[in-house]
Design goal:
about 120 residues, mainly alpha, 4 helices, 2 strands, about 5% strand, flat
Length: about 120
């Protein structure tokens, strides 16, 4: 793995995941809501998603592949997050498609061959 991309990936994914976890338990001091969710939650989850997306992009690049391989995981998370706002009949299908894409994306990232075995 390329050390520079691996370091960026670890930092971005860690911060993104932390932002999402904090968003779930942090109350909104202003009381503003968007689709029933607090404004703080929406902002932190959005920030967390973007950071996690960058982390997945850089992880794929650290293995010597195009960063787009890393987009499968955040795309699945985005579909799951869209379930918060979507109230239609196909909400369950949307949620399970997101879960499937997330799991498949993590497996793809984990098993991508490392083109830079010795790092640099």
């Amino acid at each position: 793995m390329l050390a520079i991309y691996k370091r960026k990936a670890n930092i971005a994914a860690g911060l993104g995941f932390t932002a999402i976890l904090v968003a779930l338990y942090l109350p909104d001091p202003l009381g503003a809501t968007i689709a029933g969710l607090s404004l703080t939650t929406v902002c932190l989850v959005s920030l967390g998603d973007v950071l996690f997306l960058l982390g997945c992009w850089w992880y794929a690049k650290s293995k010597g592949h195009h960063g787009a391989w890393g987009l499968i995981v955040p795309l699945g998370f985005a579909l799951i997050a869209a379930c918060w706002f979507y109230t239609g009949a196909n909400r369950g299908l949307l949620k399970w498609t997101g879960v499937t894409l997330s799991v498949v994306g993590l497996l793809v990232l984990a098993f991508l061959p490392d083109e830079h075995r010795w790092g640099s």
